[in-house]
């Protein structure tokens, strides 16, 4: 018997075996306990949290910081956490500075504001369905439907020209999947320069959307620096298109894998909101967000997290915790629980969740209505999982009808 197995660091993040759901390996950890020792890619040891109760307690604990410049911040990826010359966006800030910056953007993401976007999102989805039809069958539903919808919507919310979408989609992808500090820095600078040119234009001529509004208000009043405004715009642009596109793609694939539930989803609009919550739980696309560093010692579940240690609070294991989601491996659109952590929890809970939910509630039913015979063009078993440290999703999904 191994003498060190009890204290051995567990492997995190783990690669998905099926891109549609978090790795099965997490279930074993959740069964063993809520906190586990882990070794991050820089060799530092820290913790990974695998149960829902402790995940929520820690995500709302002010003794955990989101400061990526702290040497103890968990490094789970070969890409850089900070880029010299580019200030952090508010996802990397702690209160009270975090709240001050988040409030500058919040007006565009309230339930009322987002609900007012519904007719426009329906129009955008309808046009995307037309382009998908023109491209096939068969056609890639990610390139022609899942990606263009959130990408065009976030462009309109921010005031970014959609004609530049290939550039910012590609740069955001390169930032997320960078393999070294240098690669991250080069792509971050490219995107920052582009967004700075939009800020520059808005200072000369009032521009539309949130960027124009922040230029006229917070920048003009000296409440934010131009570099910080660019960081906020970068966060919103990247977070605003990629995760939702991933979710639309995985949502389509998951429904196609469950034909009985797809039939109900199609037939009954009242099922749609609950089904979307279940898709968010099941896919847990932003599984490796929720990274923090302890600023003080924290005792929890009989373990001691020491000040300076990194803590990973992924949402996948919490979303599959059987104490909260009985029979978690079963995809069930009637589960009737919104207690998942797919949008995070605590002060950093997703700012765009109302928008993401609305896009999913519009895009998925519309697609299956316009394409009643939609099906996989290639066997589902052929899906390639992504690197474990990035947001999960399908890069392509070929469908036919
Ligand atoms: C299905 C789609 C989405 C998922 C699964 C998702 C997931 C998440 C998660 C898990 C967090 C918390 C990160 C943490 O605690 O470290 C987060 C934060 C954030 N998300 Fe989303 N997100 C989605 C869509 C969006 C959209 C459409 C926007 C629009 C701009 C957006 C903007 C943000 C921002 C700004 C934050 C940082 C909030 C803060 O630090 O206060 N997200 N998201």
Task: Tag the structure with descriptive keywords.
3-stranded antiparallel sheet, Cytochrome p450, single chain, 10 strands, disordered N terminus, 401 residues, binds protoporphyrin IX containing FE
Describe, in plain words, how this protein is organized in 3D.
This protein has 401 residues and is α+β, with helices and mostly antiparallel strands. The chain has a domain at 96-288 and 328-400: Cytochrome P450 (Cytochrome p450), CATH 1.10.630. It is 47% helix and 8% strand. It is built from 15 helices and ten strands. The protein has helices at 25-32, 52-59, 97-106, 111-115, 118-135, 141-146, 148-158, 165-176, 181-204, 209-219, 226-257, 259-267, 272-283, 315-319, 353-370; strands at residues 35-39, 45-49, 64-65, 139-140, 291-294, 298-300, 303-305, 310-312, 375-376, 398-400. The strands form three sheets. The protein has a five-stranded mixed beta sheet. It has a three-stranded antiparallel beta sheet with strand order 4-10-9. Strands 6-7 form a two-stranded antiparallel ribbon. Strand 1 (35-39) and strand 2 form a beta hairpin. Helix 8 (165-176) packs across helix 11 (226-257). The protein starts with 24 loop residues before the first helix and ends with a strand. Residues 1-6 have low confidence and may be disordered. It binds protoporphyrin IX containing FE. Protoporphyrin IX containing FE is lined by residues 90-91, 102, 235-236, 239-240, 243-244, 247, 285-286, 289-290, 315, 342-344, 348, 350-352, 355-356. It comes from Streptomyces lycii. It holds the Pfam family p450. This is Cytochrome P450. InterPro entries: Cyt_P450, Cyt_P450_B, Cyt_P450_CS, Cyt_P450_sf. Keywords: Heme, Iron, Metal-binding, Monooxygenase, Oxidoreductase.
């Amino acid at each position: 018997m191994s003498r060190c197995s009890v204290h051995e660091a567990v492997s995190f993040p783990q690669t998905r075996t099926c891109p549609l759901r978090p790795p099965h390996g997490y279930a074993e950890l959740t069964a063993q306990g809520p906190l586990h020792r882990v070794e991050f890619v820089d060799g530092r040891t820290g913790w990974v949290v695998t149960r829902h109760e402790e995940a929520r307690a820690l995500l709302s604990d002010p003794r955990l910081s989101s400061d990526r410049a702290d040497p103890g911040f968990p490094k789970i990826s070969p890409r850089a956490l900070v880029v010299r010359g580019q200030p952090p966006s508010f996802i990397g800030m702690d209160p009270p500075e975090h709240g001050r910056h988040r409030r500058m953007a919040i007006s565009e993401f309230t339930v009322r504001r987002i609900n007012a976007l519904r007719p426009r999102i329906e129009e955008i989805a309808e046009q995307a369905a037309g382009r998908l039809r023109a491209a096939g069958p068969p056609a890639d539903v990610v390139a022609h439907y899942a990606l263009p919808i959130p990408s065009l919507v976030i462009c309109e919310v921010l005031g970014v020209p959609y004609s530049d979408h290939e550039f910012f989609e590609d740069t955001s992808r390169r930032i997320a999947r960078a393999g070294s500090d240098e690669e991250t820095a080069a792509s971050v600078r490219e995107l920052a320069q582009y967004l700075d040119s939009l800020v520059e234009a808005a200072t000369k001529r009032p521009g539309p959307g949130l960027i124009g509004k922040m230029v006229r208000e917070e920048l003009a009043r000296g409440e934010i620096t131009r570099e910080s405004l660019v960081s906020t715009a970068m966060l919103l642009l990247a977070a605003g298109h990629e995760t939702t596109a991933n979710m639309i793609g995985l949502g389509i694939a998951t429904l196609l894998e469950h034909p009985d539930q797809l039939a109900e989803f199609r037939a009954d609009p009242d099922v749609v909101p609950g089904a979307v919550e279940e898709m968010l739980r099941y896919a847990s696309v932003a599984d490796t967000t929720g990274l923090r560093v302890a600023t003080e010692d924290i005792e929890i579940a009989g373990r001691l997290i020491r000040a300076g240690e990194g803590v990973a609070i992924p949402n996948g294991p919490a979303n599959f915790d059987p104490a909260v989601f009985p029979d978690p491996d079963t995809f069930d659109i009637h589960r009737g629980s919104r207690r998942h952590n797919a949008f995070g929890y605590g002060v950093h809970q997703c700012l765009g969740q109302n928008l993401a939910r609305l896009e999913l509630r519009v895009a998925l039913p519309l697609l299956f209505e316009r394409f009643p015979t939609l099906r996989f063009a290639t066997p589902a078993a052929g899906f390639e999982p992504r690197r474990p440290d990035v947001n999960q999703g399908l890069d392509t999904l070929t469908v036919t009808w």
